[in-house]
Amino acid sequence: MTAPDGARSPRPGGAPVLSPPRRRRLVALVLGLVVLAGLLVATRVPDPWGDVGGDVLYAVATYVLVVLVLARVRPLVAGALALGWCWAVEALQATGLAGAVNDAVPPAAWLLGSTFAVRDLVCYLVGVGLACAVDTWAVPRSVTPRQPGRSG
Known about the structure:
Layout (H helix, E strand, L loop, with lengths): L6 E2 L8 E2 L1 H25 L4 H21 L5 H21 L1 H8 L4 H4 L5 H21 L14
Antiparallel strand pairs: 1-2
Helix pairs in contact: 1-2, 2-3, 2-6, 3-6
């Protein structure tokens, strides 16, 4: 049953379940807000806090993008994919390839970064961990009850 606002009937516990199109729009809105916050922090907050905050928000945005593209993915899988992407981009910076791409296409620096820093790896872990925790806490998951006589 759908409520007047487009949300489905609440699950036991009270949290409404959004229809897939509404959930996708909400996730896209969150992604836009996180990217905007990341750009503001990275450009307006003095270093080292601006750099750290930008890296954390980059990781959160990556997590939200994974959830947007793979809507049914579980939080830990989304977290693993997002962290893998962030760490791969950071490793790419150590090769010099990211710098070459950034020289050819300057806006690519917003996606690929420019210089390798171990601190960034930790910032990505923190950002993905926070996003994963919020996703796990905020989004009700359906629970399939165990059937009698079946181990699981």
